[in-house]
Amino acid sequence: MAVAERMSATKGAILSLLTDAYKRRDRVGLVVFQKNRATLILPPTNSVQLAKRALADIPVGGKTPLSAGLYSAHQVIQKERILHPDVNPLIILLTDGAGNVSMSSLPPQEEANRLADQISVDDIRSVVINMEHAAFDQGLAQNLADHLQAHCYTLNELKAETLYQKVKEEMAS
Fold first, then answer.
1. What are the tens digits of pLDDT across the range 112-134?
2. In the 8-state DSSP scheme, what is residue 168?
3. What values do phi and psi take at 170, rounded to 5?
4. What are phi and psi of 110, to 5 degrees?
């Protein structure tokens, strides 16, 4: 129940960001990582309606192939940079930081951290939104943010309007 409530608040903030992105003619893509894979459910677009539809259907819970999600986001951004050289990408990563499915023989956390390091080396800005409940937080989202060289915000720190403002600030910097 708490996860669903947190995700509902986060979706509200993301919808505000999508509307703002549409006004600026930014492109937004959406990668979901669940079960044993990551899926690009919304290729980069400036259609708010397509983004809203994709966002509404995001599942919650289950296994977390975090590294697959990072890999997929990285690939999407690399392709966008070729198609649109003026793109200034920003990954907004909603996670508790606890990956438990690997794409290789590496342990899941190590694999995710290595991919995060590569994203940072490739100069892709990121923001991590820690979805873990404060009582259960093991610092994994913050650790991932450290590898991404990104800010990490907790949902306790952010209400929908604050999350919206923080991500806008990241986009402007």
1. 999 999 999 999 989 888 888 77
2. H
3. -65, -40
4. -65, -45
Structure tokens at 11: 């979706």
Q: Which amino acid is it at 17?
A: L
**Per-residue model confidence as pLDDT tens digits over 135-166:** 888 999 999 999 999 999 886 666 656 766 77
Rounded distance, CA 116 to CA 96, Å?
A: 14
From the number of C-beta atoms within 10 Å of its C-beta (0-12, 13-18, 19+), residue 113 rates as buried
Separation between Cα atoms, residue 170 and residue 50, nearest integer Å: 24
For residue 161, which of 5, 27, 9 has the smallest C-alpha distance?
9
Task: Reduce the DSSP state of residue 11 to 3 states and report it.
Answer: helix
Assigned CATH class of 2-172: alpha beta
Task: Kindly list the strands in the beta sheet with 151-154, ordered across the sheet, starting from the edge strand earlier in the chain.
Answer: 90-95, 125-130, 151-154
**Tokens linked to 148:** 């991404």
Q: Which residue has the tokens 């980069």?
A: 44
Whole-number Å distance between alpha carbons of 92 and 167: 8
Q: Is the Cβ–Cβ distance between 28 and 18 less than 8 Å?
A: yes
Query: How many Cβ atoms from other residues are within 10 Å of residue 44's Cβ?
Result: 19
- Outline where DSSP puts E strands in 83-131: 90-95, 125-130
Cβ–Cβ < 8 Å for 95, 60: no
